[in-house]
Amino acid sequence: MRKPFVAGNWKMNKTVDQACKLVEEMLPALQKIDTVETVICPPFTSLMPVSKLLAGSGIGLGAQDMHWEASGAFTGAISPSMVKECCNYVILGHSERRAYFGETDEIVNRKLKAALQNDLVPIVCVGERLEENEAGITNEVISRQLRGCLQDIPAGQAEKIVIAYEPVWAIGTGRAASPAGAQAVVLGMISPTLISLFNEKVAQAVRVLYGGSVTAGNASEFFSQDGIDGALVGGASLKTAEFLQIIQAAHR
What DSSP letter does each residue of 154-209 carry, written as one string? Predict the structure, then answer.
């Protein structure tokens, strides 16, 4: 059985002081649920202080992005080794990185290889835009993204990857995909693509999350779908009570 996985992507929210206060507020209740792999992904500025608060807690810490190079003249970028100093996880290829910063599947692939080389657990995001969904080419888009992002990844390393299916039209809009619709993409395209790229064993091992307007109100419906192992949570992860309810739903 794959262990349920819930990650909170805080995006560009919370100062260091605010981030630490939120973690201190959440932590006692989070630690009581050890059946779910829980990860918090605050902004870069808060990673080190939050890592100290989470030390020994069993709660994971992730970065929201990173560069693929080990070091160099990349102003404003953060290297894998810098992320590794305090994190075990990293989000790669989020649709906001693709839309606002021009990231391509090739760039995500470079970052993915660097993450695996540095023993980081990558949370790789894929998802179609609204016009692609309405045009009926969701499966084509997801297949292309997965094949581009996972190119030349050895099967032995692929089992460590977490895939987050995040339909772009559902992110931050309050308009989540239907649980059945999300499951159809996971079982109808993501799993078969993983099998064709690697093998059945890898496809069975890789955890697949849903992301896109996940709330305490709809989380249980998503988690009840075969093939959906958890969630990449945005805005709701900034609200202690709601985030805890989502994790409790994953536990159940």
Answer: -HHHHTT-EEEE--GGGTTTS-PPPHHHHHHHIIIIIHHHHHHHS-HHHHHHSEEE
Structure confidence by residue, pLDDT tens digits, 5-25: 999 999 999 999 999 999 999
User: What's the predicted TM-score (pTM) here?
Assistant: 0.96
- Does residue 177 surpass a pLDDT of 90? no
Kindly name the residue from 94, 103, 128, 242 that is annotated as catalytic: 94
CATH number at residue 92: 3.20.20.70
Helix crossing, 240-251 with 16-30: angle to 10°? Answer: 40
Indicate if 251 belongs to the active site: no
Q: Which of 96, 103, 128, 166 is catalytic?
A: 166
Domain membership of residue 89 as a residue range: 5-251
Tokens of 197: 């790229």
What's the whole-number mean pLDDT along residues 96-107? 96
One-letter amino acid identity for 97?
R
**Residue 146 — very low, low, confident or very high, per pLDDT cuts 50/70/90?**
very high
| Number of structural domains in the chain | 1
